[in-house]
């Protein structure tokens, strides 16, 4: 079992535990704001299941029908998470609307808030784990899950502060107002998760920093070649695809050109983990004099 899969399973377990605690907090208080917090946790559990399935699918080796692998399954997972986050926000707005029409006093609010704070602390810890480890393991599904949890933590902090304010002032209308603000924050979170994942589905190039690193490696390791041009990159889950044309002199043998390609590929694999490199070798008259200069 890979580290990514273990983290995905951990997210599911933490999500179920946090959902139980937040549901208990809502039942103790009757707060619509705390209900909104609990409803977001339902989405957390659902997205954790989706992320786990997507990660397992993405790990399936390439086959005849999917020669480039199944890595984009993680991006599909993140898009689905964004959709589910938006649906949760709309449901919360519905509850907030009814709360505005008929504000209700809160029951045992301090005890309920204490339970909710405990759930939020657990979420905060796991959010940090998912984002840091997800970036290290290059897993879009884990990072998306972590960012979603981060918005949940921020929402919980606002809800806690707001419910305390409602208790101290006696303004029951603050409870549904907070729920509505939480919903708006969740909508923004859902959009960010979806937009980030769509870039991967649309074969967006790697970051400028990674692209500069790739160019520098090719320039340094292509000794014996004339130039490299038509560099293209894209990322799919944990995998980065890199392809370009390498121009060699007419005197270069096939074996020598192959050695240059091997040297470049080895160096790229070292600086860009999980990369897939394709190099098309061309004769000297194909040089464009506008690509990567070989040192």
From TrEMBL:
One of its GO terms (molecular function) is zinc efflux antiporter activity. It is found in: Cell membrane. The chain crosses the membrane at residues 7-29, 41-61, 73-93, 113-132, 153-171. Residues 11-202 form the Cation efflux protein transmembrane domain. One of its GO terms (cellular component) is plasma membrane. The keyword Cell membrane applies. It is a multi-pass membrane protein. It comes from the Bacteria. InterPro entries: Cation_efflux, Cation_efflux_CTD, Cation_efflux_CTD_sf, Cation_efflux_TM, Cation_efflux_TMD_sf, CDF_Transporter. One of its GO terms (biological process) is intracellular zinc ion homeostasis. Keywords: Cell membrane, Membrane, Transmembrane, Transmembrane helix, Transport. Residues 207-284 form the Cation efflux protein cytoplasmic domain. Belongs to the cation diffusion facilitator (CDF) transporter (TC 2.A.4) family. PANTHER family: MITOCHONDRIAL METAL TRANSPORTER 1-RELATED. NCBIfam families: CDF. This is Protein p34. It comes from Cereibacter changlensis JA139.
